[in-house]
Here is the input.
Amino acid sequence: MKLKACERCGKRTAEGLALCPDCMKESGAAAEAVAAAEELRDIARVLSITAGTDTNIREAMTGILHIADRLEGGKSK
Ligand SMILES: [Zn+2]
Here is the structure.
């Protein structure tokens, strides 16, 4: 899985998705579909660490932190 640019705003989104989660939300996608897109994007960020550049490491860290946030949020409820 890789990251690619959102077709609407150019932000990063998971390969295979035309729009980033933000644009999906704006276009009226279901909350569950948006959450799934966020998950895919974060996983793609984590996997992109293998490319090894500073930018990719930052992307990977951001993805890991987002996943951790969601896991923690899920536990507290
Ligand atoms: Zn977008």
Q: What stands out?
A: The helical segments are 21-26, 31-47, 54-75. DSSP finds three helices and two strands in the chain. Residues 6, 8-9, 11, 19-20, 22-23 surround zinc ion (CB under 6 Å). The chain has one domain: 3-75.
